[in-house]
Amino acid sequence: MKHFETLTEAMEDLRSRGYTHEFAPKKDFLIEKSTETKLSGEEFNVDEFHRFEGTSDPGDEMTLYAITTNGGLKGVFVSAQGTYANEVSSELMAKFNIVDRREVNTQGSVEPIAHLPAS
């Protein structure tokens, strides 16, 4: 897996690999945005993730998850640091904790964004 410099670059690469749906969390479920299909934590898997850190503000941290549902839908979920903290159950967010899950591709996912040269 390659490291991406930007969130847009990563999303375009995932889209080219079939991750065309968009997902968002809602309390105990993940929702596919175009059809509003609700998925419990048992109905999808995280295939890979990519973390992006802001160059000047740690609050700009974003994580992009590539997801495949049990029904075969592939898509992405973008999580901004703290954005969903009050909207999502801890059980659903635990699904995105990939520390102990070997099947999730994490290679190169936490490399820092290259900083622009000082002017």
UniProtKB/TrEMBL annotation:
Superkingdom assignment: Bacteria
Protein name as it appears in the record: Phosphoribosylpyrophosphate synthetase
Species per Swiss-Prot/TrEMBL record: Spirosoma aureum
